[in-house]
């Protein structure tokens, strides 16, 4: 299964899949293939240290204050994670060249999901749980040389717990693996991070990596990035400051209210086709800012959507283990059919020009804008659009063996059209 961009699974390539990754001590995620929380483990590069070699205590001291228990994991935690998405910093805001998607990106409703996809260490999960982790969102961006930025925003029990978690997790960052990272003081953030020097990017240029945990109210910000040698501390300060500014007006939902958060406030779910397989963690309702955290090009798509009265989106994703196919339906709503048509045309143009799709004619609906993408040799993704009235929908099918295998798309796209055309 795959991460998501433009509110749908990505067209992954060797460049886009698992290039950065996040962990303390510059461990890269280089081929994790699951987005189901708690089931994936990051694949490490050949030179990456083994976190099991750490000699540090497995957890920090027990909390001395009152930690509010986290709500049970369920639809409400997913809804809270999508609220957090809307206030998660985009890496390209600080480094405009980091427009490439990377893994992992998306919502988290459990500390085990964070640890499994970012760290694979075990201690991070324990600390997040210890201090009342509720939900989180992570985003990732990289440049052409695979220098990446990962931002994770986690909601904790209370401000004291967020601060205690930051302290404990910073110690883990400094101790991670072989321990060749050094502390770096970041006075502009009131924090210290873990710096590793002597790396290189895919173009052979020298790089450093840095990561830092910074609390703000109930929220806990983690940022990891690669940067040209000597510049990592300044870049991580700029990225975290952008994140802290976005969080200034955010109010975390009280834990007791999380289970009752609406998961589909606009009632769009019934108009999004239920595709084969089991739901994945991306399924749910997104406002504009949340949606843009999954967009291929947030700047261009913001202009297109806001210019046409975007009302909201519902995203349904599934994975069919038997067929080994990923499916994603993105449903958008607009005030008028004219605005729907404008976005329909705009997305079709972007797919063919900026996003690298090759157009094809689908036998079942020849007039539908359809595009195919080659993820890797012998691995293809298809995307088609249908629209009617106030609704626009796209359907993605990932991991096809042949570019012209239209069996699934021929069967499913007419069903999606029927749902929105009444």
From TrEMBL:
Where in this protein does the record put region Disordered?
38-81
Q: Which domain of life is it from?
A: Bacteria
**Compositionally skewed regions (Low complexity) per UniProt:** 46-66
> Which parts of the sequence belong to the DUF7373 domain?
73-262
Cited PROSITE patterns: PROKAR_LIPOPROTEIN
The record, for Pfam families, names: DUF7373
Full protein name = DUF7373 domain-containing protein
What organism, scientifically named, is this protein from? Klenkia marina
């Amino acid at each position: 299964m795959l991460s998501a961009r433009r509110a749908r699974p990505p067209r992954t390539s060797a460049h886009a899949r698992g290039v950065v990754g996040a962990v303390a001590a510059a461990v890269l995620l280089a081929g994790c293939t699951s987005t189901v929380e708690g089931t994936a483990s990051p694949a490490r590069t050949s030179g990456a240290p083994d976190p099991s070699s750490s000699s540090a205590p497995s957890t920090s001291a027990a909390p001395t204050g009152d930690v509010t228990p986290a709500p049970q994991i369920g639809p409400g935690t997913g809804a809270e994670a999508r609220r957090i998405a809307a206030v998660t910093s985009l890496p390209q805001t600080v480094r405009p060249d980091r427009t490439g998607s990377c893994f992992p990106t998306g919502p988290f409703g459990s500390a085990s999901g964070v640890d499994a996809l970012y760290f694979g260490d075990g201690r991070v999960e324990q600390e997040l749980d210890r201090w009342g982790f509720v939900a989180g969102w992570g985003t990732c961006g990289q440049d052409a040389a695979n220098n990446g930025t990962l931002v994770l925003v986690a909601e904790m029990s209370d401000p004291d717990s967020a601060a205690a978690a930051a302290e404990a997790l910073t110690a883990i960052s400094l101790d991670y693996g072989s321990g060749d990272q050094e502390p770096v003081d970041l006075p502009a953030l009131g924090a210290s991070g873990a710096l590793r020097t002597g790396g290189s990017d895919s173009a052979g240029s020298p790089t450093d990596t840095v990561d830092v945990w910074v609390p703000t109210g109930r929220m806990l910000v983690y940022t990891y990035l690669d940067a040209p040698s000597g510049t990592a501390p300044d870049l991580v300060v700029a990225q975290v400051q952008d994140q802290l500014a976005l969080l200034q007006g955010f109010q975390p939902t009280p834990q007791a209210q999380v289970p009752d958060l609406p998961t589909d406030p606009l009632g769009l779910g019934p108009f999004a086709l239920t595709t084969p397989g089991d739901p994945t963690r991306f399924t749910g309702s997104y406002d504009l800012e949340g949606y843009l955290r999954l967009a291929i090009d947030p700047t261009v798509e913001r202009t297109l959507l806001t210019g046409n009265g975007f009302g909201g989106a519902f995203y349904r994703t599934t994975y069919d283990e038997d067929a080994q196919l990923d499916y994603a339906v993105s449903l958008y709503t607009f005030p008028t059919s004219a605005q729907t048509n404008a976005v329909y045309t705009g997305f079709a143009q972007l797919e063919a020009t900026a996003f690298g799709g090759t157009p094809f004619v689908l036998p079942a609906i020849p007039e539908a804008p359809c595009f195919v993408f080659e993820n890797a040799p012998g691995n293809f993704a298809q995307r088609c659009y249908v629209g009617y009235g106030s609704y626009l929908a796209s359907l993605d099918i990932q991991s096809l063996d042949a570019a012209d295998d239209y069996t699934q798309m021929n069967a499913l796209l007419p069903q999606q059209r029927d749902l929105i055309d009444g």
